[in-house]
Each structure stands twice: as C-alpha cells, then as structure tokens.
Design a protein that fits this description.
The structure holds 2 protein chains of 2 kinds. By secondary structure, chain A is of the alpha+beta class. Chain A contains 8 helices and 21 strands. In chain A, helix 2 packs across helix 3, helix 2 packs parallel to helix 4 and helix 3 packs across helix 4. The longest helix of chain B has 34 residues. The C terminus of chain B is likely disordered.
Amino acid sequence: MALFTLENVSVAYEKKNILEDFNLSIEKGQLVSLLGPSGCGKTTTLRLIAGFLEASNGKFIFQDKDYTKVPVNKRNFGFVFQNYALFPHLSIFDNIAYGLRLRKISKKEIEKRVLNMLEIVNLRGFEQRFPGELSGGQRQRVAIARALVIEPDILLFDEPLSNLDANLRVNMRVEIRRIQQELGITTVYVSHDQEECFSISDQVAIMNKGIIEQLSDPATIYKYPETKFVADFIGFKNFISFDKRIDHKDYIELEKAGLVFTIDRHEHMENLNKMIGAIRPDDFIMEQSTTAIPTNGMTGTIKITTFLGRSYQYVVQTALGDFTINKEMVQPFKNGQEVTVIIPKNQMVLVE
Amino acid sequence: MQEKHRGLALFTILVFIFLLGPLVIISITSFESGSILKFPPEEYSFRWYENIFKVEMFLITFKTSIIVSIAGNILALLLGVPAAYALSRFHFAGKGIINAIFVSPILIPGIVLGFSFLRYIVVTYNLPIYLSLFIGHTVIMLPFIIRVISSSLANFDFSIEEAALSLGATRIGTFFSVVLPNIKSGIIAAVMIAFLESFNNVDISVYMTGPGVSTFPIQMLLYVENYFDPTVAAISVLLMFLTAIFMFAVERLMGLSYFTKR
C-alpha cells in the first residue's frame, strides 16, 4: 500500500504551470528517484512533498490522511539540501540535536541519539567542530544525520551530491543507499544524474515538463523506455518513425520508406501507438558493404568518424536518415566508405 | 618602480595628516590652561576637563542624548529588523518603493527633515519634547539599521531557515534560533552606526529641543557660541576616548565569537 500519494496536484509559479494534474504514489521503505533535465519540475515536486510549497490544486495524502494543508514544521519529513544548509553558528552536535531539542526529548536521550547518528554517518569525534571546518562530503553526512535523527517518516534529498567531486559522489551515493536500507526509510531523491539515480533507486521516475514520462525500476527503464523522451534521455540516440506496424504471433513487422524490419515481440511493446523504433549506438551491427542485403539490413555511407577511446563513433547516412553507431575495431572505417547496417531483432525497442 | 612607491607613500602620509591632523590639534589644545583656544598651548593643565563637570547643562544634556539614542535605537531595531528581513526574504509588489521610502531620511537634508518634524510633531500635535526627540531620532536611525542589516541578510542563505522548519521549528522560532545568530554581527554594526548618527545629530534635534531640554551636541554648539575656551576641545577628546573604548570592546567581543565559529 502506498505510504503517500500526490493526487492531481498543480503548482504554478509566476503564472507558469510547473506541475499540472500531477500524480505520484510511493510505497513504504522504497527509494524513489525523480530524474529529469532542469526545469522538469522534479525539485518542485520534492518541495511540495516537504511542504515548502503549496499546491494550487489537488491533494497530498499521507498514510490515508489529508496532508495538503499541514505546514512543513508539522510534517516530520527530513530534507537534505543541495548546499547542505547546516547552521553555521552551531557545532556539529548542536546541528544534529536541533530537531530533537524541539521535540522535548531528555538531554540524555538526545546525546545518545546524536552520537548514535554520528556513528552511522562515520563522523564520531566531530561533535565539537563547526560546519566551516568540515569538507563538503563531511558536511553532507552531517546534513543527512541531522535529517535522520528526528526519525522522519520520509527522507527527501534535493540533488545532495551535485556539489561534490566525482569520486566522492560515488562513495556518498553508496553510503546513502546503505543508510537508507539499514533504516528502511522511505526516500525521495532528486537528481539530474542518470547513473546516480539508477544505481541507488528501487524506482525511478523520469520527468519532463511537469509530468512523469515513466516510473519503473531502473533495469526496466534502461531496457524498455516507454516514450521517445525517456529513450533519448537514457541514451537511445537513434530513432526511426515507422509508417506501418503489423503484429504477428512472435514478431512485429515494421515498414518505412519501402524497407521492412522485423523485431521480437515483447510485453513492453504491445501498445499499438508505439511506432518509433529506438536503438542505442552500441547495439547496431555494422559491416563492410556486401552485395546481398541481409535481413533488417540497409546500406549506408560513413559521414563522420570520432575516436572515443575504446571504440569509434560513426555518423552513418542511410535511406532512413543519419544514425550514430559505435563500433570497436582496430582498423576504422574511412569517411565516405560504403557499409551495411543491421538492426538486430532483439535490440530495437518501440516507443511512443 | 621605486619612484612610484615613494609617491604612494607620500600620498598616504598626506591623507593621514589630513585625517588625523585636526584630531591631534584638538587633543593638544584641550590641555591649554588659558581661557582662549590656542595652538600650540602656552601652558598645560586639566583645567577645562574639570570645567566640563562644573557646567551642569553638559551633564544633563549628555544624559538626555544617551537616553534618546538608546531608546530610539531599541525602537528602530524593533521596526528595522523585521523590515530588513521582509525586504530581503520575500518578493512582493512595490518592494522597490518601500525600500526607497525607508532610505529617504538619509537622502533628505537634515534641515528639511527637521523642519517637517517641527511642523508636524511639535506644532500640529504638540507632543512633549522628550517624545518628539525620541520619535525624530528613531526616524533618523531607521534607515541605517535597515541598510546595514539588509546587507548582512543579503549574504544569508535562506535554505538554512527551511532546514530549521523541516526539523520542526516554528517560523518565529526559526528566526530567533537560526536567522538572528547568523546576522548578529550585522545587527551590532547597525546599532553602532545608528547610535553614532543619533548621538552626533544636530540638524534635526535643533528643531525639537526646547526650553530646558537639549541634546549634548546642541549644548556644545551653544557653549561655543558664548565662550571660546577649550572646554569643547576637552569634551571632544573624552568623546573620542569613549568611542575608542567602545569600538575596542565590540571588536574584542565580535572577534572572539568569530573565532569560535571557524
């Protein structure tokens, strides 16, 4: 059962709709990421859940209670900010104890819980320091400890790692996942970093222009994007808009400009509105030109060659438009060379 | 290169002489023992320092000035801190105009402002002199309070306020536990600047003082009009001395708190 639900929520800022009729439902104990380009409404959604923003329409249901009008300080949700937002005038101990002191908990209990939390985030011995004396990663762990110590019902992260350098980012996201699973706390995590979201989430919601394009587990999104936007966002660089689609028992026949392709049927492609084929640059087969065109093949000409290190990336001109194709090879194709491009029947997905 | 440095050094020395010269001269003349202000003095004594405490009006007006400045400062803080907070924190229609109105007492010549106070506070409403002074001084301090605190709020990261709210603090509680401690130095600076502005003020006070009630700078002015002895020079030295101690104390206090923060 869902822990909380956003029902037909709308948020407008300076007369511009950021969210309109937005729906989202999250289950207890899950880590759900909101992923999307800047301006897609992911941070707005998070701030709405936190209570920093008020919806002009719709409802926020938390544990079957209407929380729409409950102010932020009565919600008991933990929020971790992008810039950490630690209290600069308070020691690390006092920063973490802040929320507990407001809850009228005994001194002894506060001390016990703060020290325990410092243990969890690996910061024992830092209690008397001030935020200004800590590194970015340490500050972020204090921010997480401060949000967690109040035993929040939901933990909210707003791009928590974007101010850290690349190595630290990887360590911290593992840390966040570990803590989240250890405490079994329901978490909403906002980021624009695809790898970050995919690596730590139970569910990922890909957002675009104030709507959720797809909400699934990371592996499903990675393999079977539902829409062209999602496919593009997660790296399907090549798209073919087919004219005709015929569904057979085991395969789907697709036609464009007289060329016919067949691909395996799959439950994620049942929707007949899906007429766009999407394929990753790594998933083509490309060979030297042959006289006989094989199944799912077409002829093409190499237009641009770029060296990527491990492989070469080619822009190949075909009758269906230009494709971006990666291929590992010792002796690269030359610009202007004729090639045969084959779409393997289990590598292309259909999207809306 | 050498030439340039020598030129700069000379220029710096000139500026120092220009700034500090009058202070030095006043300090020296205050020790003159004769009854006419002269430089350099012929004979040295503390005679005029003693004289300050013999003129009763100096003591009375000093007390008046201190009371008016402190009371006005408190009221200006009570009005100015929320105003500065609202102006920095929120976006609303007419913000620019409101900001301009708050700063206007700085822009309007004191003589004009003083006259309008005379016209309304004293003539129309006939308020008691003490109350008029109190209101007038609050008005002259308010813009300084708002300006200085606004600029310290400009560097304030309001997301820490949201952090406090999300941890369960009320809006008011957040202001006192999170906002206020972080703009403390701005508030102390604002109080100091406003206090000096109010304590030294002549042009506005002069309209509102009346029979029997006067402020310290006005009393000094009156004294100079009637006597040309070095008493006023002696007062100046004492005031400089007091200000220096005051500044030193604040510096030490602020310095220490700053030290513990980092």
